[in-house]
Hints:
Blueprint: H1 12-15, H2 17-25, E1 30-33, E2 51-53, E3 56-59, H3 65-77, H4 80-85, H5 94-108, H6 116-127, H7 136-142, H8 145-153
Amino acid sequence: MTVAVIESMPTCADLGREPLAALLERYGLHLEWVAAGSEIPGSYWGDSEAGLIKDCLWVRNDTPVHSALHEACHWICMDADRRAQLHTDAGGECIEENSVCYLQILLADQWPGVIGRERMWADMDAWGYSFRLGSTRAWFEQDAEEARAWLIQQGLIDDNECPRWRVRQD
């Protein structure tokens, strides 16, 4: 499948290696940057989309930040057995996928002015994330209670929606 990158979407190059690597290191996830034009290892969607292999997130300069955060959040939200076997397809159930989306929005707030939740909502909508209320923002604000509760239950965020900087343990 070919995924079109919307030109205005912030990319990993816009964010920079150090900020992204520092955030991922808090979880124990390693960042690997591939050269322009090179295939991204472990990319489920191909093109410029981020890839996952075991404990490495693979990106290029043109990888959208929303893609990098989404794949990183898959790794954070999956159980240890799946993380150990991970190659390309994160899998998971519907509640986990929704929780991944919720967490990526919270993590975007780590870079206000560069990304932030408003920008993440817009980029997720532009990429084609689909929520029953018609937009990522509407879902997040009005229909994401189960995802939020799951993240709290797993110990990934606190009651104030602050990341706890740990991965799922079960």
